[in-house]
Structures are given as C-alpha cells and as structure tokens.
Amino acid sequence: MLYFWLALAFVAGMMMPMQAGVNSTLALHSNGALWASWISFAVGTAALFGVVLAMRYNWPIATELRQAPWWAWTGGFMGALFVATGAFLAPRIGAATMVALLVAGQLIMSVILDHIGWATFPQHEINLGRILGVLCLIAGVVLIRMY
Q1: Helix, strand, coil: what percent of the chain each, to 5?
Q2: Which of 30, 44, 54, 93 is 20 to 30 A from 22, comparing alpha carbons?
Q3: What local confidence, expressed as pLDDT, does residue 147 receive?
Q4: Considering only CA atoms, which of 75, 84, 81 is closest in space to residue 35?
Q5: What is the largest CA-CA distance in the chain?
Q6: How many CA atoms are closer than 13 Å to the CA of 132, on its beta-carbon side?
Q7: Of 101, 76, 78, 79, nearest in space to 89 by CA
Q8: Which Pfam families match (predicted)?
Q9: pTM of the prediction?
C-alpha cells in the first residue's frame, strides 16, 4: 500500500505544472489570473461536492468544526494563493523554473514543519541528510534557472 501512496504523491506532483498551464491559458480567456483561479476553485469545489455526495459521507457537525483552531480554516486561502500564483507565473517564468521554486519552497517548509511536528505532522528532526537534500534542491533551482 505504501507504494500506492508514493505513486499517488508523484502523480499529484505532476499535476502542478499542468494545472498552472491550464489556469494560465484560462487566464488569457477570462480577464486574468484571479478570474481563472476563481473558476478553477469553483470547478474543483463542484467536483469535490460531487465526490462527497457519491461516497455518501456524513456532513460535518457544526460543533466539531467550531473546535478546530482558527488556522485550520486557512487552507483554502493558501490554495487560492498557490493557484493564482501559478496561473500568473507560468507564462512569465516557465514551468521548470516555477515548479523548481515551488518545490524548493515546499521542501524547506516541510523540513521545518517536520522538525517542529506542527499540526498533524509527525516529528522528524532536521539532520545532515535533510540539510544536504535542501541544498541539492536549491542547487537544482539555480541550474534550472540559469540554463
């Protein structure tokens, strides 16, 4: 089962540059990246709503939702920023540079989040291997941008 989850993460990662390209194309036809992002979220919301209905999930209880910390509600904002930024940057800096920078930012934040064990992440101390991995990724960003 672990290999399935690893493959799923890899395939989902492959969707990042595709999504940015699709959304930047939509931006050309919808008066900008913000409208394209809004449309993208509307389509995504409809798709997820359809899946929830098809799978017959129970509706969340308001009292349970109220117990969530305030920052648990910020994921949609982060997603909107990510989608809008991708739609805006894709035609300006290219897929490889954009994704290299996105992945570098994701990895650096991931190492920090793992180190402190924040939210639902299991704690993994920063070690030499993780630091070297981050440095290699930064070197990759530089190489991709330079050539």
Answers
A1: 80, 0, 20
A2: 54
A3: 79
A4: 84
A5: 54
A6: 3
A7: 101
A8: DMT_YdcZ (PF04657)
A9: 0.81
